[in-house]
Amino acid sequence: MIKIALCDDEAKFLNLEKELIAEYFEDKGMSYSVESYSSGEELLEDEVLLKMADLIILDVEMKGIDGISVAKRIREQNDKVNIAFLSAHMNYSTDGYHVRAVRFILKTMDDIKDYLFECLDCVVANLDLIDKEITMDFSIGKRSLKIKDIVYLRTVGNYTTFVLSPDTKENYMIRYTLKKLTDMMKPFDFIAVSSNETVNLRHIKSVTRYMVSLDNGEEIPVSQKKYNDVFRAYTLFRGKIA
Amino acid sequence: MTDKALSIIITLIKIIIYYIFLKCVLKRKAEKPLGYSLLAVLYILEVAAVFFLNVFFIIKILVIAVLEIGLAIPVFKVSFKKSLLANLAFTGILYSLEFSAILIFDRFLNVKGLSQITMNTAFIADVICYFIILGIVFVLNTVFRKGALTNLDIKGWFIFAFFPLFTLVAVIAIVFSYDAQSIMDIYYSLFFLAVGMLVLNILIFILLDNVVKRESEIREKEIMLEQAEHLNQMYRSLSDEREKQKARSHDYINNLNVMLMLAREGKVDEEIRYIEEQLGREMQSVDVINTGNTLINAVLNIKYLEAKKKGIIIPFIADNLTGLKISDSDMVTILTNILDNAIEAVEKCDEKRIIFKIIKDYDSLIIDSTNPYVGQMPDEDSFETTKTDKKNHGFGLANIKNTVKANNGNCFIDTKDGIFHISIVIPLA
């Protein structure tokens, strides 16, 4: 279930937004909950919600604490929650964007529906991806792994081993060829960097000739033949998630 | 006509083709008038060598080679090494072709018991060889000149190849459709026919070459015009904005006066209504997206309005983009081309959305755009427009890629599951 917090000091818009959110999730047949607040102060008092929410939608131009300041305060407590702004303008010229808002939703009568729905699509897809798991028969037994926790796959003899972050100290080995696993993991943004390793693009910090630096501190050599493919996939992926 | 006269003509053709060959391989032109006079000198000396050294076959070849290599150096202003290599390539192709042509002719005619005309068949063999070399020169010329190959479509290739091939086939057909005696009778008319066709081929080759060159020049000019037009559009919108701003400042004073008057008269409700009205108007007139970079704002806002009219939404994701060091015209080229392509593609889709990002990440600028598409979208390799209306749409992707390259950046495209995704990274340092 997706938990949404909505904060807008204009009752007219607040109701409209609630209706639209209901329409969106009912159309999709998804379960959801919406808590609405009419000021930033009120929202910030609800600490439980701030920890639990999946998406917080904030009006930028509010009386009292404005939406941007509210977002900054939320970020101090919750680094992961999706934040979206409601405003008649997408103003990136101030510091607002440093709170890493997913979207600016245009708050005008003829735009709000389209932009709100697009934002919800984006958040739903993000949440889906974060929790995505694969289940496999490892040599230590059947286990489920979150895609985002897999850093890379490496060939060890007839086996392929999964390197995870954070490290679980368990040995996730499977009697599959790396090639087969690479094909399986490709839809989840994995790329072969050499004939021995396939890396999760989420964990790449940088790509140089001929090395990838990973966010767990490791560096893995990239084969000369694969360099162009790796650099291309990394650039496209970085653009997509940026 | 004597063999000597034939030699004079054959040598002339050879020098011309040698010149075209060098011009294309060395990618240089002879300088007027010095280059051309030296070529004339080369011609005279070579004819002399053919006349006086014919008995000493090896010496003749060596002298001709020295002349050709030596004189090509000042004509094309190249090093000895390059001239030597080019000459070796030319002579190599020429002799191997000549040799095989003579062998084929000899064999063919010997079968018919006609070996007595071997001497004359050598000339026909020569002419045929020059045709083949001309073909080789053309291919080299096309491959070596940057972009020329991509400019030439199948029709162009066909026209280019048709003339020499047709001539070759025609000459061979004519030669073999006569028996030995009649060939001797019409030998000279046949020879002149062959030479005439050769000259015709050279002329057509030059003509077509010029057409291709001009076409690529026109294309370049069109791209430049398009860029200028984009830039103009942005500047116009900026100056419009300034005009509006001036009018707004003027209105502002009026509005304050009205509000003051209403306040003094105690008409609070009327004042509130008036302020709400003004506020609504102000809100509408302000730009939808603001990145702190005037030019980028202009482009994005124009495209936002354009998209809105077509029912397309663009959630812009941006950063504070003040102080970018990429030139205005490059920026406009990249952004307008990406957004124009995207808007055009999305128009035909049910899901009318373009997700557009322009953000700073560490030390680079990332421009990233995704949109759904139906039908054909260009893939990464072609980078050519697939639009039929080239005149108005320009050369979209090729243009983007060139501009990104000029800024030391990288540009990648992915088309998967009906989603077009372009990602650009330009270093900012």
In short:
The complex is a heterodimer of chains A (242) and B (429). Chain A has 242 residues and is an alpha/beta fold.
Please give a structural write-up.
Chain A has 242 residues and is α/β, with parallel strands linked by helices. Chain A contains 7 helices and 16 strands. In chain A, strands 2-1-3-4-6 form a 5-stranded parallel sheet, sandwiched between helices. A 5-stranded antiparallel sheet of chain A has the order 11-10-9-13-12, with helices on both faces. The mean pLDDT of chain A is 89. By secondary structure, chain B is of the alpha+beta class. Chain B has 2 domains: 3-226, no CATH class; 290-429, Histidine kinase-like ATPase, C-terminal domain (Heat Shock Protein 90). Chain B has helices spanning 3-26, 34-52, 57-76, 80-111, 118-144, 148-151, 154-177, 180-185, 187-264, 268-285, 294-309, 328-347, 390-393, 396-406, and strands at residues 289-290, 316-318, 355-361, 364-372, 410-416, 419-427. In chain B, a hairpin with a 2-residue loop joins strand 5 and strand 6 (419-427). In chain B, helix 4 (80-111) crosses helix 5 (118-144), helix 5 (118-144) runs antiparallel to helix 7 and helix 9 (187-264) packs across helix 12. The chains are: A alpha/beta (242), B alpha+beta (429). Chain A binds chain B through residues 88-95, 97, 103-106, 111, 114-115, 118-119, 122, 231-232, 235-236, 238-240, 242, and chain B through 283, 286-292, 308, 313, 315-322, 353, 355, 357, 359, 361, 366-368, 370, 410, 412, 414, 421, 423-425. Strand 5 of chain A pairs parallel with strand 1 (289-290) of chain B, so a sheet runs across the interface.
